[in-house]
Structure formats: structure tokens, C-alpha cells
Amino acid sequence: MTTERLDAGAVRASAERADASRSGAAVAGAEEPGAEDRDVPADSLRVLFDPESVAVVGASGNPEKWGYWLASGALAGRHRRTVHLVNRRGGSLDGVPFLPALASLPAAPEHIVVAVPPQHVRPVVAEGLAIGARCFTVITSGGTGAGTGEDAADTERGLASLVTAHGARLLGPNCMGVVDTESELRLSWGDFPSGQVGLVSQSGNLALEIGRLLARAGQGFSRFVSLGNQRDIDAADALDSLIAHDATRVIAAYVEDFRDGRRLARTLAAAHAAGKPVLLLTVGRSEASGRAAASHTGALVSARAVVAAVCRDAGALLLDTAGELADVALCLLAAAPGGARLRRIAVVGDSGGQGALAADALSASGLEVPVLSAATRAAVGAYLPPGAGCGNPVDLAGAGEADIGNYARIARTLLLTGEADATVLTGYFGDYATANPAQAARECDVARELAAAVRESGRALVVHTMARDTPALAVLRQHGVPVYERIEQAATALAATDRLRRTGPQQPATPPPPPSPLPIATAPHRVPDGGYRTVRALLCSYGMVFPAAEFVSTADEAADAAHLIGFPLVLKAMGLAHKTEAGGVALGLADEAALRRAFGRMREATRADHYVVEAMARPPYAVELIAGVRRDPAFGPVAMIGIGGVTAELLADTTLAMAPLTPGRARELLLSLRHAPLLTGWRGAPAVHLDAAAGALCALARAAVEHPELAELEVNPLLVHPGGAVALDAHGVLA
To answer: Residue 502 CB: number of other CB atoms within 10 A?
Structure first.
């Protein structure tokens, strides 16, 4: 097998092409064979992260090739494990000769890294399995064989099946490798600084970017796992391993393809319970990653919104950029362990302008900048010039220039008072030695005093400074004090840390007991279509309330139905997605003449074949909601609740959670809406019947869970009022 053409540029280019091909959807749809619910013990990946022996197949002595970086990285840990280098053309690296084949090794390696051209991947893996290898990291991309698209995917699935059938594990294909700085395993291209952040990523270059950002701030990785195409080891497996990894204090992940989303959600919740905060990046914020929708629910439930809801309920944090991830990770590592909030912030600025802008940035991020007590103002004021502001923000007004030690004295005072959860120092500190090198030693001493005050108080100190990479800042970073170049970075990091600490995993909902037997659904049955008549009957069988109704085709049938139901009435045309805009709804019809006139106009406007005559529901103090369930390809049925009616998409006031729901969870969702005061009694109006509204949500969610033939199920509007909840329209979309 040849390694002549597997150079670093080619592998990196193919990896980036794979990144681009995957980035079109935040939550990919196709589940892999073996993607069923599986909880793999974290210690099953010991051979991935800390093998007793490693073989690099495709090793090279040429620094332009991936085989060189993999081989040199493996050799860096040879004092901890046996390292074999394989290349059929021979050669050597660092005095270690290349052997011609795996069969030439004196003993079977536990972990084999495969960096050979695609057509040679399967033979290498088969040879490794034959000699007893237990783990394979496949760097190679391009489908690991001939073909593209689905043919390549089938080839990769076949490779994974071959590996797992032998009880071994597979990382990749099309991955950048794996790094464990604690076990000194470096099987990847690039530099990975050591630190306390564990990273799982589907993008190699993004991992390098995060690594550099962390390194500049004095941090780095405890582990890095490049997932590649996730044909065996997936994001949940890798994250599970980090939960049990003592060297990892913060977990970061970039995931595009969530595979078994519910399993991943359980993993995120387990990490939160273990005190390991998870910071997640994914794609899908732009309209470019949107899709056409067949209902209001589809329009209002984006793939990223689902991920955001999952993170919220699992106690993880969904972020937007690599820089934001690095900033938040630094703040989390610096903050005192445990669940203490970081809500109240004290600000110390070198100038009134910097202090005021810092206060604005913190407040805009949802944090508080409280007025300090008289005693604290007096204690701080003792170090300030006369007239300096000390109410919060504290204006140093030259006190730092007068005596650089005042930075530590004032910060220590604020940290120890307990009136603030964290202190932000903004301005010039760290830059004195730049202008006057003679001050370098003193400035470093003050940095150590600041770090000591943090340890003594048990509270966080965050430094924003115009300086960059000076000795004093290095001291702060060495002691775990985060340093930011821009105040908005500090504000975002503190706010995100506080948000993470005030959220916790929701208890997963268990399906409610079966409904009482009703004629239509003594047991779940397949729904033949998504029309109103069918969906209405389905939801009635789950306990939802609808107005009395008759389905008709002619004006005479409508008149007969009206006399059965009683006036006033509603007439609706069937088969329209947006009935109101199309002239397919007539409200408050008071008599037969009005009904017949409305029927004629509606038939002319819509050309509909079927109509429904319904009792007019107009309870006082009612609020229109929209409730829906969309079957997400990765996370399964996801429930949505929001302010509904014709303004549903305009207001876009919705919230999501995985279905099914408990009544308590449904109430929480209702009360989390921006317009929730409308439900609890706005301007003296009575509150709506929240229990009835929650019950309707639970019924809808359960119906969707038990009917997977429906890709979407929606009620809009759901009219909630002080006396109960009644559904006025319903719609389904067949999968």
C-alpha cells in the first residue's frame, strides 16, 4: 500500500470539503445502522485515549505529509507506550524504522492510526483486526474506497460494521485524530496546548482555532476528539468519556450531525449533574440553513431552535462562535466551583468612561451592577482621590497611577464584602511595564496580590485591559484569572456562566397512562391523512376539546348542520393551510341566511370541496395559543407552544421541549413565554385555566409520540380561557 499521495494538504482539503457538505443542516436526518439507543461505558474508550501500544500505518519522514505528524506525535509518547511505524516503502523517523506491514510487528498494537489512500483503508483495518487490534483511528477521507455520495457512506458503514463485529472501536473516517494531553497521546496534525478543556469536534480547523484562542489566554486541552463521519464513535461516546475524565473541567463540542439526539441530551444532562459544564457550537443560525415548511409549526421550529431547547433542558450552553466558547470556558474555569450565581457584578475602572461602558455592557447582558453599601463605599473611598466615584462603578480616577497597589487593595475590598458575586477590573492594569519596564516586577507582584484576593474570597475576578501579553497578565493567567481584550468579551463570558449556573436538567417526561377507551382510539392507529377532520378525531380521542361540528359539502347540508348545532356558527373551508388569508373562515354567523351567503362567497373564493360548520366558541378573556409537535430527524418529536392565531409567525413567541410532556413541564413552558402575563391576568383580567392548557399540550404531545406517521401535528388556535381550553383548528403533515 502506498502513502505517496496522502499529503497534509490533500487530507486537510478533503476534510474541509466534508465539513462543507455536512454544514447544510444543523441536525442531520439519516440515522446510521447502530445509531439506536446505546449507552457505551466511558471506559470502553480507554484504548482510544491511553493505549498501551500504537501503530501508525502510513508513517512518513516528510513533514509535508500527515503521516509525519501522526508518527512524530506518537513517538512523543513512546516513554509511556510502545510505538510502531508502518510504511511498506521503508524509511525511519527519529531513529525508529518503518516496518513494511502490520503483520511484521512483534505484537499486536491496541490502537492503529490509518493514514493511507482510501482504497487501502479496509485492507489495513482487516489486517489489524486479524492480529488483534482493538481501536482504529481512520484519518483518511473520501469514502474510504471507490464511489461518492451514498456509495461512499455505504462503504464507511461497512467498515464500521467490520470493526464493531470484532469488538473493536472506530474513530472516523475522515477525522483529524485524537489527543489526550494527560496520557501524552498526540495522534493528530497541529499543535494542541495542554489545559483543562475537553473538546469534541466535527471540524478539525475549528479545533485548531479554539486551541489557539485558549493558548493565548494560558489554557488548552485536556482531550481533543475529532469525530469525522461518526460511523462508530460518536459525539455522545466522546462526551461520555470526558464526564469521567478527571483532567477535564469544562467540556466543549462542535457538532453538526447529532445522530441519536435523545441519547446526546441524556449525556449533556449527565455532564451537568457531574459538575462538568458543556459548551456547544452548531450551525443553523442563518436563513441559508432553513427549509420550506408545510405548517406554522414547521416555520416556527428551526433545527437550531431544537438544539437550543435541548441544551436549555439538559443544562448545557449553546454558543455562537469559537471566540465566545473560549471566553466562556476561561470564565468557567476561573469561577468558584459549584452552583453559585454570578449575577451581581462590581466594576472598577481606570476612568469614568471605561467603568460606565463596562456597566452598560454587563447590564445589556442581563447582569446587575448594584449600588454598593455605604460601608463598602467608605472602605473603597479610602484608596481613592477626593471626589472619585465609588458607588459602582468605582472610578479609580488616577489612584492606580498614584500607587499601583491600589488595584489589589480595592479589588480585594470588593471581593471580600460579598455584595457582588464577581468583580470586573477594566482599564490599564497590565500595561504599566510596557511604558516603564522598571515597573514590571511591581506590577507582577500586584497581579499575584489580585490572585490571592480571589483565592481568599472565593469569588471571581475578571480583568479587561488594553494591554496584551505582558508579564503581569501572564501572572494573572497562571493563577487562573481570566483576561479579556474587550469588555464585551468579559460581559458575555460572565453572563453565559451565570446563565449556565441557573439552569439545570429537566426531568425527562414519561409517557402518561393510556387514555380511556373511546370509539376511535382504544389503541393507537395509523392516521390516514393530515386533514382537519382526521386530526380533530385523533386529538379528541386523546382528550382535547373541540367545538361541536358537522362536516358538509353543500349549502343545504350546512343549513341542516346549523340547526343541529345552533347559532352563532363558524364556517371553514377544508384543505387550506392559511384559511383566513384565503377567505376560508367566516365567524359569528347569526342565522341561516348569513350562513348561506358566507358559503357562497367561500366556495367562490376557495373552490373547496368540503367545509365544516362549528359552534362559535367565544369565551371571555380568552388567549389564542399555537401548539404543535414536529418530528425532528435527530431528536424525535419536539413540542412547541406559543402565542397563536393569525399573528403566530409575526410574534414568534414560542418555546420548545422534547415530547412527551408532563403537566408540570407544560405549565413551565407556558409561563416561559414573553407574553405569559396574558395568561396569568394582564391589567386585571382573570388568569386562564393553566391546568387545562397544560393538559391540552400533553394530549397533543402524546398523540404525536404515538403516531410517528405524522411528521407534524398542530393546533392553531388553541383558545385558553378562565374556564378551560378548546381547540379551534388542527392540522397534520404526514411523514
So the answer is: 11
Phi, psi values for residue 725, rounded to 5°: -145, 135
Can you state the angle between helices 471-478 and 440-457, rounded to 10 degrees? 20
Other beta carbons within 10 Å of 4: 10
In 3D, which of 384, 387, 422 has the Cα closest to residue 400?
A: 384
3-state secondary structure of 610: coil
| CA atoms of 726 and 570, how far apart (whole Å) | 14
Distance CA 400, CA 407 (A): 6
Under 8 Å between Cβ of 112 and 136: yes
Q: pTM for the whole thing?
A: 0.85
Query: Rounded to 5 degrees, what angle do the CA atoms 598, 590, 538 make?
Result: 75
> Among 177, 170, 154, 146, which Cα is nearest to 71's?
177
Query: What domains are there in the chain, each with its CATH number?
Result: 8-281 (3.40.50.720), 337-501 (3.40.50.261), 548-615 (3.30.1490.20), 623-734 (3.30.470.20)
Closest CA to 515 of 725, 626, 624, 660: 660
Q: Are 116 and 3 in contact (CB under 8 A)?
A: yes
Whether the predicted pLDDT of 229 surpasses 90? yes
Q: Residue 331 and residue 461: Cα distance in Å, rounded?
A: 9
- For 89-112, write each residue's pLDDT tens digit: 999 999 999 999 999 999 999 999
Residues 83, 54: contact at Cβ < 8 Å?
Answer: yes
Per-residue pLDDT tens for 363-395?
Answer: 999 999 999 999 999 999 999 999 899 999 999
CA distances from 113 to 86, 157, 280, 505, 577 (A): 10, 18, 27, 37, 54
Compare 7 and 640 and report the one with higher pLDDT: 640
- Give the 3-state secondary structure of residue 136: strand
